[in-house]
């Protein structure tokens, strides 16, 4: 899977099942029958503006149902929309659920208008009578523990279309998540079996890259490749606070890391932070970005925290962005800000302009400013969403918050960092993270995607909390 190619709505295949009363096929209801057909055409036309309509079905008789069940076995849709156009004599929930299987399901409680006209003829009432059957269908679906997204209203309802977009994107993310190619660098003392097991619950199989494989790639990096990387680095970060030999070694480690990621076609490559084992094998820890592209092929993380790995993958799939690893270091209640970040391989393209430099790896070797290499920068301003995934005894749980990343001078020497003003007070933030048992690492992206994350976690049946005032 190539995660940067995620969001192509036209590739999403949708099947729509319309149910309405066979009673309305009688000659006495010819006019309303024609209006129902016009409603169906309008719905399909609107949906086809964004999605590919893989199939659509009209079920009003038992024979219609039988034909649908038989034909749907070969259906290739990603999403199924169940829409009761009118009140029906039989819901057919058991047969419909069995046919749909594990495909993500949207239940549309449909109305043919945004504002109800008054007065209504009996025929017009029938045209809008599907809600009664849909409400009963909700009960039947819940009784069978079938996950679904309920939406309410007409095809002109912008909120409905937004929820539908978020759900369809979530269904696509859920499918693509299972295909994510994630690897961790082996490390003595890390219980990779536990990490692998936690991801297997989501249908993801992690890989392990051996340190010897990485070492071998380091030896293959040529002087020309190092020179090319250093030139590219200087174009982005002109200020250097390390010697040329250390810079060249850091460049060699980053080029080799990129090779490992590309050769294994990895979406994510996670390394242990502050690893004495890596320093012993390679002299310093990798700290420079392996890729400088605005849309890099691979996410590189300097942490083996399963929650940070999963958060990074989910946010990349939802937004297309590479997230910023954020560990809250301290706060200032008077300013209502959090200051934090993370050492190591941070995505550099979110840096505020003219506020970055190459410095030593202070955490690993503070006594020797030339004993390592990494970027020092502060993240650019803008609205952000932050996600934290944690694995508990009862499974995965999500914590979401949002706020503004503020324009600021560098706050802490020698580290990639961000200054966040959350959309709540610091007291409320601290109360929630202490009550929920917050983990170590947030992953931050730019923009507001809380609705999209809510839809995703509801679909995946992962419990979540949102920190907002």
TrEMBL record:
Keywords: Carbohydrate metabolism, Isomerase. GO terms for biological process: monosaccharide metabolic process. The keyword Phosphoprotein does not apply. The lineage of its organism: Bacteria, Bacillati, Chloroflexota, Anaerolineae, Anaerolineales. One of its GO terms (cellular component) is cytoplasm. GO terms for molecular function: intramolecular oxidoreductase activity, interconverting aldoses and ketoses. The keyword Isomerase applies. It comes from Anaerolinea thermophila (strain DSM 14523 / JCM 11388 / NBRC 100420 / UNI-1). This is L-fucose isomerase C-terminal domain-containing protein.
């Amino acid at each position: 899977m190539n995660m940067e190619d995620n969001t192509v709505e036209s590739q999403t295949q949708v099947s729509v099942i319309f149910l309405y009363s066979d009673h309305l096929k009688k000659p006495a209801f010819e006019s309303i029958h024609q209006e129902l057909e016009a409603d169906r055409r309008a719905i399909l036309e609107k949906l086809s503006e964004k999605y590919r309509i893989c199939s659509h079905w009209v079920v009003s008789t038992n024979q219609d149902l039988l034909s649908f069940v038989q034909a749907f076995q070969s259906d290739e849709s990603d999403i199924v929309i169940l829409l009761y156009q009118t009140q029906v004599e039989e819901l057919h929930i058991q047969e419909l659920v069995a046919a749909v299987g594990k495909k993500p399901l949207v239940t549309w409680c449909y109305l043919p208008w945004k504002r109800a006209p008054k007065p209504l003829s009996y025929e017009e009432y029938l045209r809008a009578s599907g809600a009664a059957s849909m409400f009963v269908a909700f009960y039947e679906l819940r009784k069978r523990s079938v996950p679904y997204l309920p939406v309410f209203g007409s095809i002109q309802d912008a909120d409905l279309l937004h929820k539908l977009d978020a759900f369809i994107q979530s269904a696509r993310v859920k499918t693509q998540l299972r295909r994510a190619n994630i690897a961790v660098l082996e490390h003595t003392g890390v219980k990779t079996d536990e990490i692998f097991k936690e991801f297997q619950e989501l249908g993801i199989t992690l890989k392990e890259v051996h340190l010897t494989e990485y070492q071998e790639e380091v030896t293959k990096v040529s002087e020309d490749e190092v020179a090319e990387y250093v030139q590219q680095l200087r174009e982005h970060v002109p200020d250097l606070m390390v010697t040329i030999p250390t810079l060249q070694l850091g460049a060699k480690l980053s080029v080799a890391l990129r090779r490992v990621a590309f050769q294994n076609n990895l979406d994510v490559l996670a390394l242990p932070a502050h690893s004495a084992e890596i320093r012993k094998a390679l002299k310093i820890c990798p700290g420079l970005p392996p890729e400088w592209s605005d849309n890099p092929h691979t996410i590189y993380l300097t942490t083996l925290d399963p929650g940070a790995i999963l958060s990074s993958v989910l946010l990349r799939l939802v937004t297309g962005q590479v997230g910023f690893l954020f560990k809250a270091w301290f706060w200032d209640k008077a300013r209502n800000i959090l200051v934090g970040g993370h050492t190591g391989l941070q995505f550099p393209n979110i840096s505020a302009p003219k506020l970055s430099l190459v410095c030593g790896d202070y955490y690993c070797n503070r006594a020797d400013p030339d004993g390592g290499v990494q970027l020092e920068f502060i993240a650019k301003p803008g609205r952000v969403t932050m996600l934290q995934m944690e694995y508990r005894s009862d499974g995965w749980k999500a914590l979401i918050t949002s706020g503004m990343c503020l324009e600021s001078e560098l706050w802490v020497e020698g580290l990639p960092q961000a200054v966040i003003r959350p959309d709540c007070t610091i007291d409320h933030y601290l109360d929630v993270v202490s009550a929920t048992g917050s983990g170590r690492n947030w992953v931050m992206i730019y923009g507001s995607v809380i609705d999209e994350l809510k839809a995703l976690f509801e679909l995946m049946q992962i419990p979540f909390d949102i920190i907002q005032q």
